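Pipeline run #58 for the internal structure catalog. This entry was flagged by the ingest filter as a single-chain record with no existing model, so it goes straight to prediction. Upstream metadata was stripped on purpose; only the residue string is passed forward. Reviewer on rotation: M.T. Logging verbosity set to normal.
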Amino acid sequence: MDFWHSGALGLTEVQGMSNALFLADVGLKSASVSIVGIELVGAGIVAVSFTGDIQSVQCAIDAIDRDCGQRNVVVRTSVIGRPVVPLRMLTTSVRSTVGPVSQEIQRSATEDKK
């Protein structure tokens, strides 16, 4: 099984899909990061995952905390440097979990990496 060791993984949980899309926009505009996926966790909580180098991911998460924290919608944020995560978890479990929006973001993230 291949494992992903380089860069960083940023995770955020937020209340509501519209807030998740706003959060994704803030993260992408604030640093050089890519979205791994947007996943409906349950009970109105949506998780957004970012990848990139550790400084960029931390910058994106800080911007999310600053901009979205004022709206009181962020549930939790975390940054994992050099995660040891099976690649299949990053490519299959988050794909198409919330429909066309997630698929489009996943497609554009994949195209950006090529």
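catalog note: The first strand starts at residue 3 and ends at 4.
catalog note: The longest helix spans residues 54-69.
status: ready for reviewer M.T.
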